[in-house]
């Protein structure tokens, strides 16, 4: 028993340099472990309550479905390939919307940085468009761009472009003026100033808008699919709702949850790798 | 910390017989700033000749236009009237032959030390293997060997300001403008860098213009000191630093009697200004 205890405590304090360091490590690591364990417990408890509650009719199983039924639906749709088909369509729309939105927003920010006149001219338009709920434009997009991919893409762009422009342009403007002066003392042009200092200095801001834009593009794409789509996860939700198949709705929600989280972390990883010089 | 302390050889070079050419010449310079709320006169009737190879100090209360004078030499500003000439040529804009050292190092954190140093050459479109070679050699000379591939955050404040010095020197300027370059450093590091900058500029025959709030620094480093008064900025007095102070390193200069008396003179001059 004694050796067992010491083995256990040795596992938690592995790599320790001194007894005090060992105590510190043990404390830190057990703390981390319990945080994770509690998180897992909450998840399991919720799923268990949902499952049991639905089976015992505490909650309406028809409206809220329950985990095992969703799992069976998942297996069935995975088997016939329809789930991957719908997921891929939504992921594709989101990726295009998010990359194009970030790119267009950044380009617009560069243009107004380059021309202070244009920046002043466009300012009220940007403010108005930014404060407007873009989802309200849905019907206009459908009429203008048709019942399909283009409307969904425009919805994703409408939601992400302006905020990207604002954040990136603010980052451009907030670059330390002494850095601009540095380039100018070497006889550098405004173009040099942008290339050598303003753009690289704003890269952290641009990359962090990428993270925001992933979320915004998901909103745009799902709303777009609600309105027009014949395929995709947003379509599955609407379809499930219309035919009263709430298991399908829940399944689509879960898939969105997982894929959007994966996408967010992929972008966060890319950001960290690009900004290696920061640490 | 492997710091170069080689004074003896070059310090005797900078007495006046070596250079009699005028490096920088201000003739009747006025500078006005116009903003929404009106206009202010930053500089009034500035006439001043700075000899080649000389180190000149600009001291005065804030708002006396010290930094404006530097910007005029650098070509970042155009005088409202009067003329600024560098080696006889009217200043038409910034150029790599006039180097500028800032209050802080302003190294670009995303670039390595070597790439930071090369920025001037990059802007001029002249990054050659020879320039890289010279950059590495200069780093070594400043006691920074082995740091070329590092990033700025890995270096201490003093090392970073030495990197900034290398960056300034790499374009081989004839004039170096020093805008309180030591004000953000610890006192000890500041003294070391004063010595390094003085020896380096003198050894290369570079003309230096030092703006500083630290009167002691001005006396210890410079050949002449221009005292400015404010609102508007005018030249109040130009003082020669005695030979005995000039021939010593900035640290040793602080121990001479002449250093203290000159310090008190400037102190007295500036008392009237505040």
Note the topology.
The complex is a heterodimer of chains A (279) and B (274).
Chain A: H1 2-12, H2 19-55, H3 61-64, H4 67-79, H5 82-114, H6 116-131, H7 138-145, H8 149-173, H9 177-185, H10 190-228, H11 233-242, H12 246-274
Helix pairs in contact in A: 4-12, 5-6, 5-8, 5-10, 5-11, 7-8, 8-10, 9-10, 10-11, 10-12, 11-12
Chain B: H1 8-11, E1 22-35, E2 38-51, E3 55-59, H2 66-74, E4 81-86, E5 89-90, E6 98-101, H3 113-117, H4 119-123, H5 129-141, H6 157-170, E7 175-179, H7 187-204, E8 207-211, H8 215-221, E9 224-229, E10 234-240, H9 243-246, H10 250-253, H11 257-271
Parallel strand pairs in B: 3-8, 3-9, 6-7, 7-8
Antiparallel strand pairs in B: 1-2, 1-4, 4-5, 9-10
Helix pairs in contact in B: 5-6, 6-7, 8-11
Description:
The complex is a heterodimer of chains A (about 280) and B (about 270). By secondary structure, chain A is mainly alpha-helical. Chain A has twelve helices and no strands. The longest helix of chain A has about 40 residues. Chain A is flat and about 75 Å long. With about 270 residues, chain B is of the alpha/beta class. In chain B, strand 7, helix 7 and strand 8 form a beta-alpha-beta unit. The N and C termini of chain B lie far apart (about 40 Å). The N terminus of chain B is likely disordered. Chains A and B meet through helix 9 and helix 10 of A and strand 6 and helix 4 of B.
């Amino acid at each position: 028993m004694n050796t067992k205890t010491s083995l256990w405590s040795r596992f938690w304090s592995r790599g320790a340099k001194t007894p005090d360091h060992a105590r510190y490590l043990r404390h830190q690591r057990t703390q981390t472990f319990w945080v994770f364990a509690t998180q897992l417990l909450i998840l399991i408890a919720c799923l268990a309550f949902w499952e049991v509650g639905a089976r015992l009719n505490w909650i309406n199983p028809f409206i809220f479905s329950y985990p095992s039924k969703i799992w069976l639906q998942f297996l069935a749709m995975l088997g016939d390939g329809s789930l991957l088909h719908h997921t891929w369509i939504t992921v594709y729309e989101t990726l295009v919307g998010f990359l194009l939105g970030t790119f267009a927003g950044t380009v617009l920010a560069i243009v107004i940085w380059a021309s202070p006149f244009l920046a002043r001219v466009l300012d009220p338009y940007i403010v108005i468009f930014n404060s407007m709920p873009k989802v309200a434009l849905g019907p206009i997009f459908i009429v203008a761009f048709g019942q399909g991919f283009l409307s969904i893409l425009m919805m994703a762009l409408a939601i992400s472009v302006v905020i990207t422009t604002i954040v990136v342009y603010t980052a451009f403007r907030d670059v330390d003026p002494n850095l601009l002066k540095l380039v100018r003392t070497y006889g550098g042009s405004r173009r040099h100033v942008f290339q050598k200092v303003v753009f690289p200095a704003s890269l952290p801001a641009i990359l962090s808008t990428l993270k925001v834009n992933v979320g915004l593009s998901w909103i745009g794409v799902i709303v777009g699919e609600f309105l027009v789509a014949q395929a995709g996860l947003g379509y599955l939700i609407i379809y499930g709702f219309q035919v009263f198949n709430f298991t399908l709705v829940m399944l689509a929600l879960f898939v969105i949850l997982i894929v959007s989280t994966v996408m967010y972390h992929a972008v966060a990883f890319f950001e960290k790798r690009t900004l290696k010089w920061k640490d | 910390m492997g710091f170069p302390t080689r004074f003896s050889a070059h310090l005797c070079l900078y007495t006046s017989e070596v250079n009699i050419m005028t490096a920088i010449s201000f003739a009747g310079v006025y500078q006005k700033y116009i903003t929404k709320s009106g206009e202010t006169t930053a500089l009034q009737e500035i006439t001043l000749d700075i000899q080649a190879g000389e180190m000149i100090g600009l001291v005065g209360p804030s708002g006396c236009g010290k930094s404006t004078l530097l910007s005029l030499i650098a070509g970042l500003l155009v005088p409202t009237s009067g003329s600024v000439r560098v080696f006889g040529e009217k200043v038409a804009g910034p150029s790599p032959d006039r180097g500028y050292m800032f209050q802080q190092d302003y190294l670009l954190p995303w670039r390595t030390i070597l790439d930071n140093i090369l920025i001037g050459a990059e802007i001029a479109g002249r990054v050659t293997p020879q320039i890289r070679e010279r950059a590495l050699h200069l780093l070594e000379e400043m006691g920074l060997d082995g740091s070329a591939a590092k990033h700025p955050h890995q270096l201490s404040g003093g090392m970073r300001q030495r990197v900034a010095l290398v960056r300034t020197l790499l374009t081989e300027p004839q004039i170096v403008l020093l805008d309180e370059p030591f004000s953000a450093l610890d006192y000890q590091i500041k003294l070391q860098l004063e010595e390094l900058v003085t020896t380096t500029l003198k050894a290369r025959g570079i003309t230096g213009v030092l703006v500083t709030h630290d009167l002691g620094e001005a006396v210890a480093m410079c050949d002449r000191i221009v005292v400015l008064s404010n609102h508007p900025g005018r030249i109040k007095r130009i003082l020669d630093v005695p030979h005995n102070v000039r021939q010593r390193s900035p640290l040793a200069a602080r121990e001479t009697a002449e250093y203290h008396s000159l310090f008190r003179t400037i102190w007295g001059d500036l008392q009237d200004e505040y």
